[in-house]
């Protein structure tokens, strides 16, 4: 019954798109409708990823989910840059990394069955290393931005070499990791069983990603009015609400996989792969592409953003250092995220 309801609720996405472009519905109604439409899309991406993972193994499956799930975020960020909302872009990017590491991974660990709590320790630590490297490199344009105008052109120029180094680093580590995952899956001799065919799973992932991008764009453009009505700062909206909603695909997919199928290995790959990809691929890509859509985006993050990013890496690294993830560590991750959200609320706008 639950699966039938999820399949049926996929119809919310075209309804949300039709309401957005064919009616004069208010922003609050559009926000609620588009948020509801993202839930079954997140389930579909998680479902397709699980079937693709049967053919490729959990490592490559997590990479596929992160790649398809983060595509809408890249599109949303560029829309926000062109609309002159740099704080929303930076906040949503950092919020995406932190929420994936602490909230999503924490909930996946919390709900996974007791008998299947192992993770790929080497893969986790390598990807956490990528996020840590990004946090350190972000200091280059960020520290000068703590004094004076954080949007000044000189800081956008200082961002360019940082973005290029991060992209090269991501390309090298990802290529090595995918070769390793492919070799592990081949040596395991695992069978795909009753899974969808790999082309069918990839088509489903691609289609769901395109629709998710359209629905996410509607939601982001309705957030300003929503935030105004509930009296929240733009910083809090971007780093918490936009980040969580913009990543609904990975969030829902990882949690559903851990809770329903007990596949914590794949769920952890999704959460941590998505975090690394946002930090080391999406963020520098947005900074470089912003020169085309204008104005150029300097990666001048606030101290509280970098502190949250670094803190999330330390908490997760300590939790997964032995390749196991007991339930209490999931509670700890979610607890740290709650503390970060409270800090974001009191930080206010820059």
List the topology elements:
Layout: H1 2-9, H2 12-22, H3 27-56, H4 58-82, H5 86-111, H6 121-145, H7 153-188, H8 198-230, H9 234-246, H10 248-261, H11 264-293, H12 303-320, H13 327-347
Helix pairs in contact: 2-3, 2-8, 3-4, 3-8, 3-10, 4-5, 4-7, 4-8, 4-10, 4-11, 5-9, 5-10, 5-11, 5-12, 5-13, 6-7, 6-11, 6-12, 7-11, 8-9, 9-13, 10-11, 12-13
Kindly describe this structure.
With 350 residues, this protein is mainly α. It has one domain (66-187, 220-347): A middle domain of Talin 1. It has 13 helices and no strands. The chain has helices at residues 2-9, 12-22, 27-56, 58-82, 86-111, 121-145, 153-188, 198-230, 234-246, 248-261, 264-293, 303-320, 327-347. The longest helix is centred in the middle third of the chain and has 36 residues, at 153-188. The model has no long low-confidence stretch (mean pLDDT 83).
């Amino acid at each position: 019954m639950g699966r039938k309801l999820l399949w049926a609720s996929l119809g919310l996405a075209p309804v949300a798109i039709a309401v957005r472009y064919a009616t004069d519905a208010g922003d609050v109604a559009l926000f609620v409708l588009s948020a509801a439409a993202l839930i079954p899309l997140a389930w579909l991406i998680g479902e397709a990823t699980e079937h693709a993972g049967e053919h490729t193994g959990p490592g490559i499956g997590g990479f596929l989910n992160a790649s398809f799930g983060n595509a809408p975020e890249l599109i949303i960020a560029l829309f926000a840059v062109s609309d002159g909302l740099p704080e929303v872009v930076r906040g949503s990017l950092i919020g995406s990394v932190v929420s994936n590491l602490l909230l999503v991974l924490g909930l996946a660990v919390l709900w996974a069955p007791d008998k299947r709590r192992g993770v790929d320790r080497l893969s986790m630590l390598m990807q956490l290393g990528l996020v840590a490297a990004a946090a350190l490199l972000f200091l280059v344009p960020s520290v000068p931005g703590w004094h004076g105008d954080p949007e000044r052109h000189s800081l956008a120029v200082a961002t360019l070499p940082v973005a290029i180094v991060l992209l090269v680093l991501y390309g090298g580590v990802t290529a090595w990791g995918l070769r390793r995952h492919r070799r592990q899956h081949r040596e395991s001799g695992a069978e795909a069983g009753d899974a969808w065919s790999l082309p069918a799973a990839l088509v489903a992932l691609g289609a769901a990603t395109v629709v998710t991008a359209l629905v996410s764009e509607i939601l982001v453009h309705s957030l300003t009015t929503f935030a105004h009505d509930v009296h929240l700062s733009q910083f809090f909206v971007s780093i918490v609400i936009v980040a969580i909603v913009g990543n609904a695909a990975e969030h829902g997919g990882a949690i559903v996989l851990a809770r329903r199928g007990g596949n914590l290995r794949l769920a952890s790959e999704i959460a941590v792969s998505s975090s690394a990809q946002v930090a080391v691929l999406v963020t520098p890509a947005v900074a470089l592409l912003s020169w085309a859509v204008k104005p150029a985006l300097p990666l001048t993050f606030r101290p509280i953003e970098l502190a949250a990013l670094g803190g999330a890496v330390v908490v997760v690294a300590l939790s997964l250092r032995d390749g196991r993830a007991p339930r209490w560590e999931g509670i700890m991750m979610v607890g740290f995220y709650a503390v970060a959200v409270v800090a974001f609320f009191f930080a206010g706008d820059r």
